[in-house]
Task: structure prediction
Amino acid sequence: MTFPHFLFYLFAFFAVGAALMVITRRNPVHSALFLVLVFFNVAGLWMLAEAEFLALALVLVYVGAVMVLFLFVIMMLDIDLAALRAGFVRNLPVGILVAVIMLVEMVLVLGPAHFGLSVYAAPEPAPADYDNTAALGLSLFTEHLYALEVAAVILLVAMIAAIGLTLRKRPDTRRQVVSRQHMVKKKDRLRVIKMAPEEK
Result:
């Protein structure tokens, strides 16, 4: 076994183990931290596949931004852990069934026969001057430009929908009306009061 093979099995073992810990921990904060560990190990697998840009993006975007947001939300919310545990046990058979179906479908689709191969073969190593980021950008903005634009529109619609669903209008909230601010006169806001001096 070569050293890259050892690293692959090591990263894969910790990624699968941490993913199981994510769904079995009782504390949501612990689950989020184990999800961070999953992201780091998957980033290691991307590095072994010579996809350095995707590995760094996974760490910077998901671990550095999304998971920090998740942790803040989880720690700020008052989560009923007993209800979560009851729901987990009640939905466990359905979850196992869905996981088995997804695993079977992935094995059927990702077989070597679908890629014109008789057996799995390692890809040819890239040359030393190969720029992974430039190749990814060139592929995105030439071959997959339509799919990229569709994904951008879907994300924009999802963002607008999330803002619309969470926006609450309260009657007692004071809002800024710029037109009324421009129409204000000095006499409406300023009152000069003359007072007699007092002797001390």
